[in-house]
Amino acid sequence: MSVSAEDLAERYGPAYKWYATGTVMLGTIAMVLSATIVNVALPDIMGEFGMGQDKAQWLSTAFLAAMTATMLVTAWAIARFGTRTTYIAALVVFIASSILGGLSPNEDVLIVARTLQGAAAGLVQPLAMVVIFRAFPPAERGTAMGIYGVGVILAPALGPTLGGMLIDNYSWRDVFFLGPPFCFAGILLAPTFLATRPPGRPVAFDMLGFILLSVAIAALLTALANGQRQGWESTMVTGGFTLAGVATLGFIWHENRTRSPILSLGVYLNPRFAVASAVAFILGLGLYGSTYLVPLFVQTVQGYTPTESGLLLMPAGIVLGVVFPLAGRMSDRLPPYILILSGLILFAWSSLLMANADTSTDFWVFAGWVVVGRIGLGLILPSLNVGALRVLDPALISQGAGAINFMRQLGGAVGVGALSVALERQTALHADAFNALQTGGAAATETLNKLAVLMTRAGIPDSPQFSLHSQEVYRFLSSIVAAQASVMGFRDSFLLVAVIFFVALGPAWLMRPRRKE
Protein backbone atom coordinates (compact mmCIF):
# COMPACT_ATOMS: atom_id res chain seq x y z
CA MET A 1 0.00 0.00 0.00
CA SER A 2 1.42 3.37 -1.07
CA VAL A 3 1.57 6.05 1.59
CA SER A 4 2.53 9.60 0.60
CA ALA A 5 4.08 12.27 2.80
CA GLU A 6 0.77 14.17 2.62
CA ASP A 7 -1.09 11.13 4.00
CA LEU A 8 1.35 10.90 6.90
CA ALA A 9 1.11 14.64 7.58
CA GLU A 10 -2.68 14.35 7.73
CA ARG A 11 -2.45 11.32 10.03
CA TYR A 12 -0.01 12.82 12.56
CA GLY A 13 -0.89 16.52 12.25
CA PRO A 14 1.55 19.39 12.82
CA ALA A 15 3.91 17.13 14.78
CA TYR A 16 4.63 15.05 11.68
CA LYS A 17 7.41 17.38 10.51
CA TRP A 18 9.30 16.63 13.72
CA TYR A 19 8.71 12.88 13.48
CA ALA A 20 9.98 12.79 9.89
CA THR A 21 12.93 15.03 10.74
CA GLY A 22 13.97 12.91 13.71
CA THR A 23 13.77 9.73 11.64
CA VAL A 24 16.02 10.89 8.80
CA MET A 25 18.40 12.79 11.09
CA LEU A 26 19.31 9.54 12.88
CA GLY A 27 20.84 8.18 9.70
CA THR A 28 22.34 11.53 8.74
CA ILE A 29 24.12 11.92 12.07
CA ALA A 30 25.47 8.37 11.98
CA MET A 31 26.88 8.72 8.49
CA VAL A 32 28.30 12.23 8.65
CA LEU A 33 29.80 11.30 12.02
CA SER A 34 31.68 8.51 10.28
CA ALA A 35 32.97 10.87 7.59
CA THR A 36 35.40 12.54 9.99
CA ILE A 37 35.63 10.32 13.08
CA VAL A 38 38.36 8.23 11.45
CA ASN A 39 40.63 11.29 11.19
CA VAL A 40 41.70 11.09 14.83
CA ALA A 41 42.46 7.39 14.33
CA LEU A 42 44.81 7.95 11.37
CA PRO A 43 48.08 7.84 13.37
CA ASP A 44 47.03 4.57 15.06
CA ILE A 45 45.85 3.00 11.79
CA MET A 46 49.03 4.09 10.00
CA GLY A 47 51.09 2.53 12.79
CA GLU A 48 49.22 -0.79 12.80
CA PHE A 49 49.20 -1.30 9.03
CA GLY A 50 52.44 0.51 8.17
CA MET A 51 50.65 3.01 5.90
CA GLY A 52 52.18 6.20 4.57
CA GLN A 53 50.30 9.50 4.56
CA ASP A 54 49.67 9.21 0.80
CA LYS A 55 47.63 6.02 1.33
CA ALA A 56 46.17 6.93 4.72
CA GLN A 57 44.40 9.96 3.28
CA TRP A 58 42.29 7.54 1.21
CA LEU A 59 40.47 6.59 4.41
CA SER A 60 38.87 10.04 4.23
CA THR A 61 38.99 10.58 0.47
CA ALA A 62 37.42 7.21 -0.48
CA PHE A 63 34.47 7.88 1.85
CA LEU A 64 33.90 11.37 0.46
CA ALA A 65 34.39 10.31 -3.17
CA ALA A 66 31.86 7.48 -2.92
CA MET A 67 29.44 9.77 -1.10
CA THR A 68 29.81 12.37 -3.83
CA ALA A 69 28.99 9.89 -6.62
CA THR A 70 25.98 8.22 -4.98
CA MET A 71 24.39 11.50 -3.89
CA LEU A 72 23.15 11.93 -7.44
CA VAL A 73 21.44 8.54 -7.34
CA THR A 74 19.08 9.69 -4.59
CA ALA A 75 16.47 11.36 -6.81
CA TRP A 76 16.20 8.25 -9.00
CA ALA A 77 16.16 5.87 -6.02
CA ILE A 78 13.34 7.80 -4.34
CA ALA A 79 11.32 7.77 -7.58
CA ARG A 80 12.00 4.07 -8.18
CA PHE A 81 11.82 2.55 -4.69
CA GLY A 82 10.32 5.27 -2.49
CA THR A 83 11.76 7.24 0.39
CA ARG A 84 11.24 4.51 2.99
CA THR A 85 12.88 1.64 1.07
CA THR A 86 15.81 3.77 -0.12
CA TYR A 87 16.50 4.99 3.41
CA ILE A 88 16.34 1.54 5.00
CA ALA A 89 18.52 -0.05 2.28
CA ALA A 90 21.19 2.63 2.74
CA LEU A 91 21.21 2.10 6.51
CA VAL A 92 21.62 -1.67 6.08
CA VAL A 93 24.60 -1.19 3.74
CA PHE A 94 26.12 1.27 6.18
CA ILE A 95 25.78 -1.10 9.13
CA ALA A 96 27.39 -3.96 7.16
CA SER A 97 30.28 -1.81 5.95
CA SER A 98 30.87 -0.43 9.46
CA ILE A 99 31.23 -3.97 10.80
CA LEU A 100 33.60 -4.78 7.92
CA GLY A 101 35.70 -1.71 8.76
CA GLY A 102 35.90 -2.57 12.44
CA LEU A 103 37.08 -6.11 11.63
CA SER A 104 39.41 -5.19 8.71
CA PRO A 105 42.55 -7.41 8.55
CA ASN A 106 44.49 -4.96 6.34
CA GLU A 107 44.37 -1.46 4.89
CA ASP A 108 42.86 -2.53 1.55
CA VAL A 109 39.78 -4.04 3.20
CA LEU A 110 39.53 -0.95 5.38
CA ILE A 111 39.51 1.34 2.34
CA VAL A 112 36.80 -0.83 0.72
CA ALA A 113 34.72 -0.56 3.89
CA ARG A 114 35.12 3.21 3.91
CA THR A 115 34.05 3.35 0.26
CA LEU A 116 30.86 1.38 1.01
CA GLN A 117 30.15 3.60 4.01
CA GLY A 118 30.47 6.65 1.80
CA ALA A 119 28.18 5.16 -0.86
CA ALA A 120 25.44 4.64 1.73
CA ALA A 121 25.95 8.10 3.20
CA GLY A 122 25.62 9.63 -0.26
CA LEU A 123 22.08 8.31 -0.56
CA VAL A 124 20.95 9.45 2.87
CA GLN A 125 22.17 13.07 2.98
CA PRO A 126 20.10 14.52 0.11
CA LEU A 127 17.19 12.21 1.00
CA ALA A 128 17.10 13.72 4.49
CA MET A 129 17.31 17.20 3.04
CA VAL A 130 14.35 16.61 0.69
CA VAL A 131 12.22 15.01 3.45
CA ILE A 132 12.84 17.89 5.86
CA PHE A 133 12.44 20.61 3.22
CA ARG A 134 9.05 19.21 2.16
CA ALA A 135 7.83 18.49 5.69
CA PHE A 136 8.14 22.14 6.77
CA PRO A 137 6.01 24.98 5.36
CA PRO A 138 7.86 27.56 3.21
CA ALA A 139 8.01 30.16 6.00
CA GLU A 140 9.88 27.70 8.27
CA ARG A 141 12.33 26.21 5.77
CA GLY A 142 15.23 28.25 7.09
CA THR A 143 14.63 26.70 10.49
CA ALA A 144 14.38 23.31 8.80
CA MET A 145 17.75 23.75 7.10
CA GLY A 146 19.24 24.81 10.43
CA ILE A 147 18.08 21.51 11.92
CA TYR A 148 19.46 19.63 8.93
CA GLY A 149 22.76 21.46 9.37
CA VAL A 150 23.06 20.12 12.91
CA GLY A 151 23.54 16.64 11.50
CA VAL A 152 25.71 17.67 8.56
CA ILE A 153 28.27 19.78 10.44
CA LEU A 154 27.72 19.24 14.17
CA ALA A 155 28.29 15.50 13.82
CA PRO A 156 31.75 15.83 12.23
CA ALA A 157 32.61 18.46 14.83
CA LEU A 158 31.78 16.15 17.74
CA GLY A 159 32.91 12.93 16.03
CA PRO A 160 36.65 13.38 16.67
CA THR A 161 35.98 13.89 20.40
CA LEU A 162 34.06 10.64 20.73
CA GLY A 163 36.52 8.85 18.46
CA GLY A 164 39.50 10.03 20.50
CA MET A 165 37.98 8.71 23.71
CA LEU A 166 37.30 5.33 22.13
CA ILE A 167 40.81 5.08 20.72
CA ASP A 168 42.56 6.00 23.98
CA ASN A 169 40.43 3.68 26.08
CA TYR A 170 39.82 0.82 23.65
CA SER A 171 40.97 0.66 20.01
CA TRP A 172 40.68 2.56 16.74
CA ARG A 173 38.45 -0.28 15.50
CA ASP A 174 35.72 0.75 17.93
CA VAL A 175 35.09 4.02 16.10
CA PHE A 176 33.42 1.99 13.34
CA PHE A 177 30.78 0.71 15.77
CA LEU A 178 29.62 4.15 16.89
CA GLY A 179 27.23 4.76 13.97
CA PRO A 180 25.27 1.48 13.68
CA PRO A 181 23.10 2.05 16.80
CA PHE A 182 21.75 5.25 15.24
CA CYS A 183 21.09 3.33 12.02
CA PHE A 184 19.15 0.60 13.83
CA ALA A 185 16.94 3.27 15.42
CA GLY A 186 16.34 4.82 12.01
CA ILE A 187 15.35 1.45 10.55
CA LEU A 188 12.79 0.97 13.34
CA LEU A 189 11.19 4.41 12.81
CA ALA A 190 11.23 4.54 9.00
CA PRO A 191 8.18 2.27 8.38
CA THR A 192 6.06 4.55 10.56
CA PHE A 193 7.13 8.04 9.50
CA LEU A 194 8.50 7.84 5.94
CA ALA A 195 6.51 7.64 2.71
CA THR A 196 6.57 4.61 0.42
CA ARG A 197 6.92 4.68 -3.37
CA PRO A 198 5.50 7.89 -4.85
CA PRO A 199 2.74 7.63 -7.49
CA GLY A 200 3.71 7.68 -11.14
CA ARG A 201 6.08 5.78 -13.37
CA PRO A 202 9.72 5.82 -12.21
CA VAL A 203 12.36 7.14 -14.61
CA ALA A 204 15.13 4.96 -15.99
CA PHE A 205 18.47 4.94 -14.20
CA ASP A 206 21.24 6.84 -15.99
CA MET A 207 23.86 4.11 -15.72
CA LEU A 208 26.24 5.62 -18.29
CA GLY A 209 26.15 8.99 -16.56
CA PHE A 210 26.86 7.38 -13.20
CA ILE A 211 29.82 5.41 -14.61
CA LEU A 212 31.31 8.48 -16.30
CA LEU A 213 30.94 10.53 -13.13
CA SER A 214 32.49 7.81 -10.95
CA VAL A 215 35.43 7.41 -13.35
CA ALA A 216 36.02 11.18 -13.40
CA ILE A 217 36.05 11.46 -9.60
CA ALA A 218 38.17 8.35 -9.06
CA ALA A 219 40.72 9.36 -11.71
CA LEU A 220 41.02 12.91 -10.37
CA LEU A 221 41.53 11.85 -6.76
CA THR A 222 43.95 9.05 -7.70
CA ALA A 223 46.07 11.48 -9.70
CA LEU A 224 46.06 13.96 -6.83
CA ALA A 225 47.02 11.29 -4.30
CA ASN A 226 49.95 9.99 -6.38
CA GLY A 227 51.27 13.26 -7.80
CA GLN A 228 53.73 14.02 -5.02
CA ARG A 229 55.06 10.45 -4.80
CA GLN A 230 55.08 9.47 -8.49
CA GLY A 231 55.87 12.90 -9.90
CA TRP A 232 53.39 15.33 -11.43
CA GLU A 233 54.71 14.65 -14.92
CA SER A 234 54.63 10.87 -14.59
CA THR A 235 52.52 8.79 -16.96
CA MET A 236 50.24 7.61 -14.16
CA VAL A 237 49.44 11.13 -12.89
CA THR A 238 49.06 12.88 -16.26
CA GLY A 239 47.02 9.93 -17.50
CA GLY A 240 44.76 10.21 -14.44
CA PHE A 241 44.12 13.91 -14.99
CA THR A 242 43.51 13.30 -18.70
CA LEU A 243 41.07 10.50 -17.98
CA ALA A 244 39.27 12.69 -15.43
CA GLY A 245 38.95 15.50 -17.99
CA VAL A 246 37.70 13.21 -20.77
CA ALA A 247 35.19 11.50 -18.45
CA THR A 248 33.93 14.89 -17.24
CA LEU A 249 33.39 16.16 -20.80
CA GLY A 250 31.69 12.87 -21.68
CA PHE A 251 29.45 13.20 -18.61
CA ILE A 252 28.39 16.75 -19.54
CA TRP A 253 27.74 15.74 -23.17
CA HIS A 254 25.70 12.71 -22.12
CA GLU A 255 23.68 14.51 -19.43
CA ASN A 256 22.57 17.16 -21.91
CA ARG A 257 21.17 14.50 -24.25
CA THR A 258 19.69 11.76 -22.11
CA ARG A 259 16.01 11.81 -21.15
CA SER A 260 16.69 10.83 -17.54
CA PRO A 261 19.95 12.49 -16.42
CA ILE A 262 21.48 11.52 -13.10
CA LEU A 263 22.27 15.23 -12.65
CA SER A 264 19.95 17.75 -14.24
CA LEU A 265 22.46 20.29 -15.53
CA GLY A 266 19.56 22.63 -16.15
CA VAL A 267 19.64 23.69 -12.49
CA TYR A 268 23.04 25.27 -13.13
CA LEU A 269 21.52 27.50 -15.81
CA ASN A 270 20.04 29.46 -12.91
CA PRO A 271 22.88 31.93 -12.18
CA ARG A 272 22.18 32.20 -8.46
CA PHE A 273 22.03 28.44 -8.05
CA ALA A 274 25.30 28.14 -9.99
CA VAL A 275 27.16 30.57 -7.71
CA ALA A 276 25.59 28.90 -4.65
CA SER A 277 27.05 25.62 -5.92
CA ALA A 278 30.49 27.23 -6.15
CA VAL A 279 30.19 28.38 -2.55
CA ALA A 280 29.03 24.88 -1.55
CA PHE A 281 32.14 23.39 -3.16
CA ILE A 282 34.38 25.69 -1.12
CA LEU A 283 32.34 25.03 2.02
CA GLY A 284 32.98 21.30 1.64
CA LEU A 285 36.67 21.92 1.07
CA GLY A 286 36.91 23.98 4.25
CA LEU A 287 34.79 21.71 6.44
CA TYR A 288 36.39 18.38 5.59
CA GLY A 289 39.84 19.76 4.80
CA SER A 290 40.19 21.54 8.14
CA THR A 291 38.68 18.60 10.04
CA TYR A 292 41.37 16.45 8.38
CA LEU A 293 44.25 18.88 9.10
CA VAL A 294 43.51 19.94 12.69
CA PRO A 295 43.57 16.50 14.42
CA LEU A 296 46.59 15.51 12.33
CA PHE A 297 48.45 18.69 13.33
CA VAL A 298 47.84 18.49 17.05
CA GLN A 299 48.72 14.78 17.19
CA THR A 300 51.80 14.73 14.97
CA VAL A 301 53.22 18.17 15.80
CA GLN A 302 52.00 18.99 19.30
CA GLY A 303 51.93 15.41 20.59
CA TYR A 304 48.28 15.36 21.67
CA THR A 305 46.55 12.07 22.40
CA PRO A 306 43.48 11.17 20.29
CA THR A 307 41.23 12.17 23.19
CA GLU A 308 42.93 15.56 23.53
CA SER A 309 42.74 16.20 19.81
CA GLY A 310 39.04 15.34 19.87
CA LEU A 311 38.41 17.55 22.89
CA LEU A 312 40.01 20.41 21.00
CA LEU A 313 36.98 20.37 18.67
CA MET A 314 34.41 19.96 21.46
CA PRO A 315 33.91 23.70 22.18
CA ALA A 316 33.33 24.28 18.48
CA GLY A 317 30.68 21.55 18.48
CA ILE A 318 28.89 23.11 21.42
CA VAL A 319 28.94 26.53 19.78
CA LEU A 320 27.58 25.03 16.56
CA GLY A 321 24.63 23.60 18.48
CA VAL A 322 23.73 27.18 19.42
CA VAL A 323 24.55 28.82 16.09
CA PHE A 324 22.61 26.51 13.78
CA PRO A 325 19.06 27.15 15.06
CA LEU A 326 19.80 30.89 15.21
CA ALA A 327 21.25 30.90 11.70
CA GLY A 328 18.25 28.96 10.42
CA ARG A 329 15.81 31.48 11.86
CA MET A 330 17.91 34.39 10.62
CA SER A 331 17.89 32.95 7.08
CA ASP A 332 14.07 33.16 7.16
CA ARG A 333 14.31 36.90 7.85
CA LEU A 334 17.52 38.08 6.17
CA PRO A 335 18.81 37.72 2.61
CA PRO A 336 20.89 34.51 2.62
CA TYR A 337 23.91 36.13 0.98
CA ILE A 338 24.50 38.37 4.02
CA LEU A 339 24.88 35.39 6.35
CA ILE A 340 26.97 33.50 3.78
CA LEU A 341 29.40 36.42 3.38
CA SER A 342 29.71 36.74 7.15
CA GLY A 343 30.37 33.03 7.52
CA LEU A 344 33.02 32.98 4.81
CA ILE A 345 34.87 35.89 6.41
CA LEU A 346 34.81 34.22 9.84
CA PHE A 347 36.11 30.90 8.51
CA ALA A 348 38.85 32.60 6.48
CA TRP A 349 39.88 34.54 9.59
CA SER A 350 39.98 31.31 11.60
CA SER A 351 42.26 29.70 9.00
CA LEU A 352 44.54 32.75 9.03
CA LEU A 353 44.87 32.42 12.81
CA MET A 354 45.71 28.71 12.52
CA ALA A 355 48.38 29.60 9.94
CA ASN A 356 50.34 31.01 12.93
CA ALA A 357 50.18 27.80 15.00
CA ASP A 358 53.34 26.10 16.25
CA THR A 359 54.40 23.52 18.83
CA SER A 360 53.81 25.92 21.71
CA THR A 361 50.30 27.10 20.76
CA ASP A 362 48.08 26.80 23.81
CA PHE A 363 45.19 24.29 23.78
CA TRP A 364 42.49 26.88 24.47
CA VAL A 365 43.95 29.36 21.99
CA PHE A 366 43.78 26.75 19.22
CA ALA A 367 40.31 25.68 20.34
CA GLY A 368 39.20 29.31 20.14
CA TRP A 369 40.48 29.58 16.58
CA VAL A 370 38.47 26.50 15.63
CA VAL A 371 35.35 27.97 17.28
CA VAL A 372 35.60 31.10 15.11
CA GLY A 373 35.66 28.95 11.96
CA ARG A 374 32.77 26.77 13.08
CA ILE A 375 30.61 29.83 13.77
CA GLY A 376 31.28 30.80 10.17
CA LEU A 377 30.25 27.37 8.91
CA GLY A 378 27.13 27.52 11.05
CA LEU A 379 26.09 30.77 9.37
CA ILE A 380 26.80 29.45 5.87
CA LEU A 381 25.03 26.11 5.59
CA PRO A 382 21.35 26.89 6.41
CA SER A 383 21.49 30.11 4.40
CA LEU A 384 23.22 28.42 1.47
CA ASN A 385 20.66 25.61 1.22
CA VAL A 386 17.71 27.99 1.51
CA GLY A 387 19.22 30.48 -0.92
CA ALA A 388 20.02 27.76 -3.47
CA LEU A 389 16.71 25.87 -3.39
CA ARG A 390 14.52 28.96 -3.08
CA VAL A 391 15.39 30.13 -6.60
CA LEU A 392 14.43 26.79 -8.24
CA ASP A 393 11.03 25.66 -9.49
CA PRO A 394 9.35 23.23 -7.04
CA ALA A 395 9.70 20.41 -9.57
CA LEU A 396 13.50 20.80 -9.48
CA ILE A 397 13.90 20.76 -5.69
CA SER A 398 14.95 17.08 -5.56
CA GLN A 399 17.51 17.60 -8.33
CA GLY A 400 18.65 20.83 -6.71
CA ALA A 401 19.10 19.19 -3.32
CA GLY A 402 21.19 16.45 -4.89
CA ALA A 403 23.22 18.95 -6.90
CA ILE A 404 24.03 21.29 -3.98
CA ASN A 405 24.99 18.36 -1.74
CA PHE A 406 27.02 16.91 -4.61
CA MET A 407 29.05 20.10 -4.93
CA ARG A 408 29.68 20.29 -1.19
CA GLN A 409 30.84 16.68 -0.99
CA LEU A 410 32.93 17.01 -4.16
CA GLY A 411 34.62 19.97 -2.51
CA GLY A 412 35.26 17.83 0.56
CA ALA A 413 36.74 14.95 -1.43
CA VAL A 414 38.95 17.21 -3.55
CA GLY A 415 39.81 19.34 -0.53
CA VAL A 416 41.13 16.46 1.57
CA GLY A 417 43.16 15.15 -1.36
CA ALA A 418 44.50 18.55 -2.40
CA LEU A 419 45.34 19.67 1.15
CA SER A 420 47.08 16.36 1.81
CA VAL A 421 49.21 16.99 -1.29
CA ALA A 422 49.85 20.61 -0.28
CA LEU A 423 50.87 19.52 3.22
CA GLU A 424 53.28 16.87 1.95
CA ARG A 425 54.72 19.12 -0.75
CA GLN A 426 55.22 22.19 1.44
CA THR A 427 56.74 20.12 4.24
CA ALA A 428 59.27 18.66 1.80
CA LEU A 429 60.11 22.11 0.38
CA HIS A 430 60.69 23.56 3.85
CA ALA A 431 62.78 20.55 4.87
CA ASP A 432 65.03 21.01 1.82
CA ALA A 433 65.39 24.72 2.56
CA PHE A 434 66.24 24.13 6.23
CA ASN A 435 68.73 21.38 5.41
CA ALA A 436 70.50 23.68 2.96
CA LEU A 437 70.99 26.20 5.74
CA GLN A 438 72.66 23.57 7.95
CA THR A 439 75.48 22.81 5.50
CA GLY A 440 78.76 24.57 5.89
CA GLY A 441 77.54 27.67 7.71
CA ALA A 442 79.17 29.11 10.81
CA ALA A 443 75.88 29.01 12.73
CA ALA A 444 75.35 25.35 11.87
CA THR A 445 78.88 24.42 12.91
CA GLU A 446 78.53 26.29 16.19
CA THR A 447 75.21 24.52 16.87
CA LEU A 448 76.75 21.10 16.23
CA ASN A 449 79.67 21.86 18.55
CA LYS A 450 77.36 23.02 21.34
CA LEU A 451 75.25 19.87 21.02
CA ALA A 452 78.37 17.72 21.23
CA VAL A 453 79.42 19.53 24.42
CA LEU A 454 75.95 19.02 25.94
CA MET A 455 76.15 15.29 25.18
CA THR A 456 79.52 15.06 26.89
CA ARG A 457 78.17 16.83 29.99
CA ALA A 458 75.20 14.48 29.96
CA GLY A 459 77.56 11.54 30.32
CA ILE A 460 77.27 10.19 26.77
CA PRO A 461 80.76 8.88 25.92
CA ASP A 462 82.22 9.65 22.53
CA SER A 463 83.95 7.04 20.42
CA PRO A 464 86.62 8.30 17.98
CA GLN A 465 86.29 5.10 16.00
CA PHE A 466 82.54 5.39 15.40
CA SER A 467 82.14 9.15 16.02
CA LEU A 468 79.13 8.49 18.23
CA HIS A 469 78.66 12.13 19.13
CA SER A 470 78.57 13.21 15.48
CA GLN A 471 75.95 10.60 14.63
CA GLU A 472 73.74 11.56 17.57
CA VAL A 473 74.16 15.28 16.95
CA TYR A 474 73.19 14.98 13.29
CA ARG A 475 70.27 12.70 14.15
CA PHE A 476 69.00 15.17 16.73
CA LEU A 477 69.42 18.12 14.38
CA SER A 478 67.60 16.25 11.60
CA SER A 479 64.64 15.59 13.88
CA ILE A 480 64.48 19.29 14.79
CA VAL A 481 64.58 20.28 11.12
CA ALA A 482 61.86 17.73 10.24
CA ALA A 483 59.62 18.97 13.06
CA GLN A 484 59.99 22.60 12.02
CA ALA A 485 59.36 21.71 8.36
CA SER A 486 56.18 19.91 9.39
CA VAL A 487 54.98 22.98 11.30
CA MET A 488 55.62 25.21 8.30
CA GLY A 489 53.85 22.73 5.99
CA PHE A 490 50.74 22.83 8.17
CA ARG A 491 50.91 26.64 8.32
CA ASP A 492 50.98 26.87 4.54
CA SER A 493 48.03 24.47 4.28
CA PHE A 494 45.90 26.53 6.68
CA LEU A 495 46.88 29.68 4.78
CA LEU A 496 45.74 28.06 1.53
CA VAL A 497 42.31 27.36 3.05
CA ALA A 498 42.04 31.01 4.13
CA VAL A 499 42.87 32.28 0.64
CA ILE A 500 40.26 29.98 -0.95
CA PHE A 501 37.55 31.23 1.42
CA PHE A 502 38.40 34.85 0.70
CA VAL A 503 38.10 34.07 -3.03
CA ALA A 504 34.64 32.58 -2.35
CA LEU A 505 33.38 36.01 -1.30
CA GLY A 506 33.04 36.82 -5.02
CA PRO A 507 30.45 34.18 -5.93
CA ALA A 508 28.69 34.65 -2.58
CA TRP A 509 28.19 38.34 -3.40
CA LEU A 510 26.51 37.31 -6.68
CA MET A 511 23.80 35.49 -4.70
CA ARG A 512 22.14 38.84 -3.96
CA PRO A 513 18.47 38.90 -4.95
CA ARG A 514 17.38 40.99 -7.88
CA ARG A 515 15.72 44.31 -7.12
CA LYS A 516 12.26 43.03 -8.03
CA GLU A 517 12.67 40.30 -5.40
UniProtKB/TrEMBL annotation:
CDD domains with a match to the protein in the record: MFS_LmrB_MDR_like
Location relative to the cell: Cell membrane
Database matches in Gene3D superfamilies: MFS general substrate transporter like domains, Multidrug resistance protein D
Topology of this chain in the membrane: Multi-pass membrane protein
InterPro entries hit by this protein: EmrB-like, MFS, MFS_dom, MFS_trans_sf
Keyword annotations from UniProtKB, A to Z: Cell membrane, Membrane, Transmembrane, Transmembrane helix, Transport
GO cellular component, one term: plasma membrane
Transmembrane intervals: 18-38, 58-79, 85-103, 115-136, 142-163, 175-195, 207-224, 236-253, 273-298, 310-328, 334-356, 363-384, 493-511
Domain Major facilitator superfamily (MFS) profile, first and last residues per copy: 20-516
Pfam families: MFS_1
Keyword set includes Cell membrane: yes
Any one GO molecular-function label of the UniProt entry: transmembrane transporter activity
Family: Belongs to the major facilitator superfamily. EmrB family.
Name of the protein in question: EmrB/QacA family drug resistance transporter
